[in-house]
Task: structure prediction
Amino acid sequence: MPNECDTEIRSTWFWNSGNADTLRSLDDLMEVYYRSVGHGAVLLLNANPDATGAIPETDARRAAEFGAEIKRRFGKSLMETSGAGAVLEMSLGKATTIDHVVSEELIAPGERVRHYVVEGMVGDRWEKICEGTAIGHKKIDQFDPIRVSKVRLRCIESAGEPLIRRLAVLNTTE
Result:
């Protein structure tokens, strides 16, 4: 089961009439998303009611913007695959710009990946795009846009055979 990350839509835990300027920016909330969900946690975004018992309209609007931005970035991948083994490769069919890779392990039998590298085929050679030390429930790797025709995940170190539930590539710049 993934860990839970609690945060608030404001930079203070409780609403009061003097904290209208503490509403977190969309960029700040997205940074929290990458640091939590992007590292396998479940994000609990707390929004506190005002003196009337309702969520303030500005807070509700920001939460809706946050959800829309998550959906825009991660709602549809360009391509995805799954599989078992130390190497998982997928062809994009043609050179395609990507700027995120989302990886997920099948964790029921245990988190296995200890060190991985994601590479992209640029022209006729593989280039390292990103690397990490764990995948687990979900790992979001963000990097500068790169045009690749293939992507591969190489599990350099693992505790048993890696079981990749999802390997997806995205382009969030469009």
